[in-house]
Every structure is written in C-alpha cells, then in structure tokens.
Amino acid sequence: MAARPTRSYDIVVVGGGIAGLTSAAYASQYGRKVLLLEQGHCLGGLVNSFRYEGFTFDGGIRAIENSGIVFPMLKELGITVDFVNSPVLLGIGDDFIPLDGKNDLVKYGDMLKRHFPKDVTAIDKILRDMDRAIRYMDVIYGIDNPIFLDYKTNKTYFQKTVLPWLFRYQKSIKKAMRMKLPINQHLARFTKNQELIDVMTQHFFKDTPAFFALSYFHLYKDYHYPLGGTGIIPQKLSRYISEHGGEIRLESEVVKISLTDRTVTTRNGENFAYRELVWAADLKRLYNALGTVVLKDKAQQKKFLKLKPAIMAHRGGDSILTVYMTSSHGAEAFSHITGAHCFFTPEEQGLRSIGLAPIIDEKGTLLTTNKEEVFAWIKRFFELTTFEISLPAMRDASLAPEGQMGLIVSTLFDYRLTQSLQEKGWYEDFKLFAETTISEILQKTLFKDIEVKAQFSSTPMTIARVVGSSDGAITGWAFGPMIPVEHRFPKILHSVETIFPHLFQAGQWSFSPSGLPVSVLTGKLAAQGAQKNIKQEDKKKK
Known about the structure:
Blueprint: E1 7-14, H1 18-29, E2 34-37, E3 49-52, E4 55-58, E5 64-65, H2 70-77, E6 83-85, E7 88-92, E8 95-99, H3 104-115, H4 120-140, H5 155-176, H6 183-187, H7 194-201, H8 210-214, H9 216-221, E9 223-226, H10 232-243, E10 247-249, E11 254-258, E12 263-266, E13 271-279, H11 283-290, H12 298-313, E14 319-327, E15 341-345, H13 371-384, E16 387-390, H14 392-395, E17 405-413, H15 415-423, H16 427-444, E18 452-458, H17 460-467, E19 503-505, H18 516-541
Parallel strand pairs: 1-2, 1-13, 2-10, 7-15, 13-19
Antiparallel strand pairs: 3-4, 5-9, 6-9, 7-8, 11-12, 12-13, 14-17, 14-18, 15-16, 16-17
Helix pairs in contact: 1-10, 1-18, 3-4, 4-5, 13-16
C-alpha cells in the first residue's frame, strides 16, 4: 500500500493510556500542535469504565492513588473531577478489619496474630518494619510533587515547604532503598511460616521490593474514587486535549518509526511527521517499530545494541483475571463491605502450598494434558488466592440501577497459564469455570445469601489484546535483577529520556515500580522534555 501524504505536528504522542493523555494534555497546554495516536478503539488504557445493562464497571484500576501527583496534575490543567474517599477493608476468612487511619497497623497485627498465634514475636517485628517503611513513604509523598509547582507564583511555599521536604525526601529515599529485597525474601528473615508470608504478600506482584510492599498501608489511606467511575479521568483529559487544539486518532497503531525523517507510520498506511515524539506505550512495540537503528554516536549505538535484546527478552509483570457480576440486591446487602473496596483471602493456607510447578514449567508449557487435573488445580488456586473486590455503586449510586449492585472481583493470574489454556482449546471453558467457581466461593464466604444475576470475565489475554500490554501486564515490567528501565527513585526524573534523538518515553514501561501516579508523572516529564527541545531548536534557527 502506498503511503498517504504526511501531516506534520510539533509533538506526536503514541499511546492513549493515562501517560499518553497526560503528555498530550500538557503539550496542548504549551500551545503545541499535538497528535495523539491510540492503537485501540477507546482511550484510557488501564484507567477506564464501561457500561453493561445499566451498570458502570471499571475496566482497569479500581481506585485512584493520588500520591501527591494525580490531584496536582488535574489542578494544574484546570480539570475538575469530584472524588470520594475509598477506604479499604482487609479480610481473612470471616475476620475483617477496616483501614480507616485509626491504629491500622495495630488492627492488622492483631488480625494476623488471631490467625497465626505461634508467630506473635515475628509479627511484632514485621509490624515495626512496616511502620518504618510507612514513615518513609509519608515523607516521600508528604507534599504535592514539586514537578507540578509554579515556582514563580509560589516562592514562599517553595522556600518554606519544598526545600525542607527535599532534604527529608533524600534521607527517606536513601533509607527506603535499603529495603529492596523481594518481599517474600525480606519477610523470611522474620518467620519461616510460609502461610503467614503468603497471606501478607500474595496480592502483591511477584518479587515486589520490600519497601513498596511494606509501605502499602500508606497507599491504602490514599485511595480515592472519582464520581462517575475511573473512566471519567481519561474522558476529561481527552476533552482538554481537543479543546486546546490537539488531535486524537483511535485505531491508529504505529508500526514504523523513522528517526532520520522524524515520521511515524500507522498500520493503515498514514504517515505523520513530528518534531518531538513521546512513546507512551509498550516499549517492545517501540523497538519493533524502530527496527534496525544506526545512531551517529558510537556510544549510543552500543547502548542500543545492548538495550534492544534486553527489552525484547524481559517479561511484563503480573496480570489479573477479573470477574464482573451483577446482583439484584442493593447497597444494604453489602453494607459489611466498608468503603466498597476489599482485599479478601478466603483461607489462610497460602498459595505456595500448591505452586505453579505441577501445572506449567518456567516457559509456561502445560505439564499435563489432563483437563480435569488442570481445572482442579485452578479451583484450589481460587480457594486460596486473595481477591480485590470493588463495588462502584457503593461509592456512587448512579453506577448501578436502583436497588441493584455491580461487583468487580479480581485476582492475580498467570498470563502464560492462560495462554497455554487457549492453545489447548480450553480458554472459553476456563472463563466459564472461573466465573462460576469464584462466584460460588464468594457466595459461601463474603457474600452469603446474595444472588448473582449475571457474570462475565476478563483475563490476562484480554488485557494483552485490548490494551496492547506485553504478557497482559498491568504495571509494566516484571520485578527482577535486570529490569531494562530506570528503577531508582532518585533517578525518576531521567526515566523519560532515551538514547534516540527527539524521542521520549513515558508510562508504566518507562520506570519500575509503576502505576497510575508514575504514569502521570512521566507523562508530564516527557511533555516538558519535548517542549524544551523544541524551544532550543527554534532558538538555534533564529
């Protein structure tokens, strides 16, 4: 197919998730001619909502972590979103505690001691470690991130608040980085009880650094829910871009990039020229689109030859299986789910007791052809896993028909196993089995006597297909010793830089560990970098 005529833009942003939307919004605010290209048919990526028979469900994240980043971004852009607090409930079996900011660690410790009375001493030591990590996090996210501060109009605030904070920030970051062992290894220093370790950690991603996991109680306090559903944020960002002259194109997957010509080509044959390019999508797709690159700088060329195979070989992080349910029961039937956001572990035995080893090998190949055996293992997995449960209409009644409720039930689930089930031709049976089994487990435990009207599901394969995320990953790269992007908090400001001229990266694949706040932060940083380059280039032309 012959290439269509090229249209020129100041900044082209690839990827319509929250990082790409943030980047395009700021580029539009700078007065630049902006184009946002998204491979899918909708915006938001893992921050989205959808309608189903009168219910609104969140298709990605279940709540918003502000982290001193999201709210300042919206304020700086002049975007108004109404939020409500989204307190969390933790449950093991019939034992539940609300995390409301009042002695949360004490309540959590008491709950663990009720289930693991032989480990009281170890639990006390772990709680002290958690308290220390939370105090570090309280400093790190203690104020609105200075990146979103206008220093010219806030000189007093900068001098009296930001400068003292920067000193505490540096000290806290340094101490936090000492707690970088994977959380399971870190907790094994205190206890050999694998069931206790599992109950505390199995809702975290594999090999999550200890600091991030231990300090997560800070983030629980920071959960907020946007009225209208999480999808309201990408909606308002996209409207902002359009109102400020930016252009958005859906179903426009970029398959080729020419660094020499500064052009991108989409799958349907359209060419777009750019002065600066922001890649806010999966980095494997970036390197595929770049193809063979020859850089003028020999040192940079050497980096490219080393970096590309590392990017292509590294796996995406953990993925999730989600079951969406509708119920004819109203809010009163779910009043025990305080705050409408719950992490629930049906049993205390722990997932390590079954492991993946009997089912698939390290490459993800099924080790048995016995379908009944595989599904029996999956059933036991669901009985032991930890579920994240969200009830949107408990926070915003307009998100379900009157007197009814929508439920979102998720658990971490292996992409490779899901892929193997599809290759065996068992995928649709697996989805139905997962929906039925999870529904039955919850109706016997957390939602006794509550009728489920309808249910459907999303798997890691769904995420990979719809969002374009390698391995269905929901927070970028898998944790490990060779993460191919920046993963040092003190260096996060440089995470958007690449070895390629006029090309920045942003989003969950640009820094690890990642999530919504990091995506927003890197989105702005990339737009700032692009704006700076354009200004410098224009200055040279004068």
